[in-house]
């Protein structure tokens, strides 16, 4: 009887989410190398909450020298059961779609360009894709070539050849579904934000015919190697920026409108939200506003260990334990930045994530995407020292930014003012909570928690945690309805 009640509760929750989201997608990338991180940064599929995303994407698969799909890390993906654990999440959420991304930055163009240029190579690749996805029970493929016509091995004809591959993949997916009497494999693509990359590498109108949706990489508009400290994922141009300044085009709003102009359907555009920041080392520690001179990338993070890059949990640890100062110069257009002693980082917090989700609703777009869930504060680490913290705000002097995941916020936009629906009061998610039974629970001060015995939980975690950025954005995407 207890199992029946638990099952009904889970079904009721899933029914609520399906109604709340409507046709909007919440796409979440998981990086398989995050399992090698240490301490609080170690992340594996066991830490994924299966109810917060409509689509989960496993990054990455690779391409063999004879143009077949292969695991990126055979040890973790196959021998240690990475794929199997990922697929196990569908046991809880029957509507969850799980895709495999192929490519990524490290793959470059060296394999992609000759693959798409030759009809026989494309056939070989397509056959291997279908066999691979069906063998490991993936629901689709996410193409992530970074980038056609660029980097080592890229050629001008990549643009047309990439479109041919997509067309042939879609036709083959449809043919295989009909023959096997199984649901058609999904076909999506990660696409760049920069106009030069779009123009030279992507036949948007043709791709739009065959793709289920586009995952827009609407971040890294600025790199950590630029001579000025800039936020890497602005929604709109910040105040005072001239429309003749090239940085005026380096925004999510401009990218969305450009894809629409090139022939993409609104409901196929999924806006990317980063769960990491880009960091800089300032030339002068006292010159620390947006656009201040920088002499290179910031120091590596304690856990991610990459120059110019900080996961959200590293950013908040710097703020809470090392007293970095937080500023919000233009919160409707761009996320906050934080600095201390010559180190500077721009990042997206929950508030700007909500604002971007609201933008998706206003513009009638296809959904939101997160790169990546393993960079968010998945362990609740940041909650330990900041449940009631107030951060200084450059524009309104002391905005309460306690980390209630779905706190009430009203936003304004430069072009189409619309107030965010006020959600119900939500308990503090940082309050301690431990699982005493299997199922989905709410309790005073805990928010929604998932407890289970079927899916193994990684060491140090009692249950899959909330992701602050994901929950904040999903709350707005769902029309302001509470997720608990």
From TrEMBL:
<dbReference type="Pfam" id="PF00704">
    <property type="entry name" value="Glyco_hydro_18"/>
</dbReference>
<dbReference type="GO" id="GO:0000272">
    <property type="term" value="P:polysaccharide catabolic process"/>
</dbReference>
<feature type="signal peptide">
    <location>
        <begin position="1"/>
        <end position="22"/>
    </location>
</feature>
<protein>
    <recommendedName>
        <fullName>chitinase</fullName>
        <ecNumber>3.2.1.14</ecNumber>
    </recommendedName>
</protein>
<dbReference type="GO" id="GO:0005576">
    <property type="term" value="C:extracellular region"/>
</dbReference>
<keyword id="KW-0732">Signal</keyword>
<keyword id="KW-0119">Carbohydrate metabolism</keyword>
<dbReference type="InterPro" id="IPR001579">
    <property type="entry name" value="Glyco_hydro_18_chit_AS"/>
</dbReference>
<feature type="domain" description="GH18">
    <location>
        <begin position="24"/>
        <end position="412"/>
    </location>
</feature>
<keyword id="KW-0146">Chitin degradation</keyword>
<dbReference type="InterPro" id="IPR029070">
    <property type="entry name" value="Chitinase_insertion_sf"/>
</dbReference>
<dbReference type="InterPro" id="IPR011583">
    <property type="entry name" value="Chitinase_II/V-like_cat"/>
</dbReference>
<feature type="region of interest" description="Disordered">
    <location>
        <begin position="410"/>
        <end position="429"/>
    </location>
</feature>
<dbReference type="GO" id="GO:0008843">
    <property type="term" value="F:endochitinase activity"/>
</dbReference>
<dbReference type="InterPro" id="IPR050314">
    <property type="entry name" value="Glycosyl_Hydrlase_18"/>
</dbReference>
<keyword id="KW-0326">Glycosidase</keyword>
<comment type="similarity">
    <text>Belongs to the glycosyl hydrolase 18 family. Chitinase class II subfamily.</text>
</comment>
<feature type="compositionally biased region" description="Low complexity">
    <location>
        <begin position="410"/>
        <end position="419"/>
    </location>
</feature>
<dbReference type="InterPro" id="IPR001223">
    <property type="entry name" value="Glyco_hydro18_cat"/>
</dbReference>
<keyword id="KW-1015">Disulfide bond</keyword>
<dbReference type="InterPro" id="IPR017853">
    <property type="entry name" value="GH"/>
</dbReference>
<keyword id="KW-0378">Hydrolase</keyword>
<keyword id="KW-0147">Chitin-binding</keyword>
<dbReference type="GO" id="GO:0008061">
    <property type="term" value="F:chitin binding"/>
</dbReference>
<dbReference type="GO" id="GO:0006032">
    <property type="term" value="P:chitin catabolic process"/>
</dbReference>
<keyword id="KW-0624">Polysaccharide degradation</keyword>
């Amino acid at each position: 009887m207890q199992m029946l009640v638990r099952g009904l509760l889970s079904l009721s929750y899933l029914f609520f989410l399906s109604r709340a989201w409507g046709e909007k997608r919440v796409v979440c990338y998981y990086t398989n190398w995050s399992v090698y991180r240490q301490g609080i940064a170690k992340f594996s599929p066991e830490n994924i909450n299966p109810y917060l995303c409509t689509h989960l994407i496993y990054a990455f698969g690779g391409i063999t020298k004879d143009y077949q799909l292969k695991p990126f890390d055979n040890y973790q993906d196959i021998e240690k059961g990475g794929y199997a654990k990922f697929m196990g999440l569908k046991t809880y959420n029957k509507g969850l779609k799980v895709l495999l991304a192929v490519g990524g930055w490290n793959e470059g163009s060296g394999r992609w360009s000759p693959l798409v240029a030759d009809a026989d190579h494309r056939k070989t690749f397509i056959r291997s894709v279908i066999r691979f996805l069906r063998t490991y029970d993936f629901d689709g493929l996410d193409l992530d070539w970074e980038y056609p016509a660029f980097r080592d091995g890229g050629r001008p004809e990549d643009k047309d050849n990439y479109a041919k591959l997509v067309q042939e993949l879609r036709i083959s997916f449809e043919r295989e579904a009909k023959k096997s009497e199984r649901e058609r494999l999904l076909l999506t693509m990660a696409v760049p934000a920069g106009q030069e990359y779009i123009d030279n590498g992507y036949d948007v109108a043709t791709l739009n015919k065959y793709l289920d949706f586009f995952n827009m990489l609407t971040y890294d508009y600025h790199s950590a190697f630029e001579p000025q400290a800039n936020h890497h994922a602005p929604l709109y141009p910040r105040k005072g920026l001239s429309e003749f300044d090239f940085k005026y085009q380096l925004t999510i709003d401009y990218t969305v409108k450009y894809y629409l102009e090139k022939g993409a359907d609104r409901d196929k555009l999924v806006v990317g939200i980063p769960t990491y920041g880009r960091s800089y080392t300032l030339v002068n520690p006292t010159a620390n506003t947006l656009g201040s001179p920088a002499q290179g990338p910031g120091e590596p993070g304690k856990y991610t260990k990459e120059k110019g890059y900080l996961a959200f949990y590293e950013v908040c640890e710097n703020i809470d334990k090392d007293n970095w100062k937080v500023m919000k110069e233009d919160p409707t257009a761009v996320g906050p930045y934080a600095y201390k002693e010559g180190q500077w980082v721009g990042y997206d917090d929950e508030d700007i994530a909500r604002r971007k989700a609201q933008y998706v609703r206003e513009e009638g777009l296809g959904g939101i995407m997160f790169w990546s869930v393993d960079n968010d504060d998945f362990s609740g680490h940041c909650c330990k020292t900041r449940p009631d913290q107030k951060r200084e705000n450059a524009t309104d002097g002391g905005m309460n930014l306690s980390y209630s995941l779905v706190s009430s916020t009203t936003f304004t936009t430069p072009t189409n003012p619309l107030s965010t629906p006020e959600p119900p009061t939500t308990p503090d998610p940082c309050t301690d909570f431990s699982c005493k039974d299997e199922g989905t629970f709410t309790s005073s001060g805990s928010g929604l928690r998932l407890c289970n015995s079927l899916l193994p939980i990684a060491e140090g975690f009692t249950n899959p945690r909330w992701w602050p950025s994901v929950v904040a954005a999903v709350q707005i995407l769902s029309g302001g309805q509470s997720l608990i």
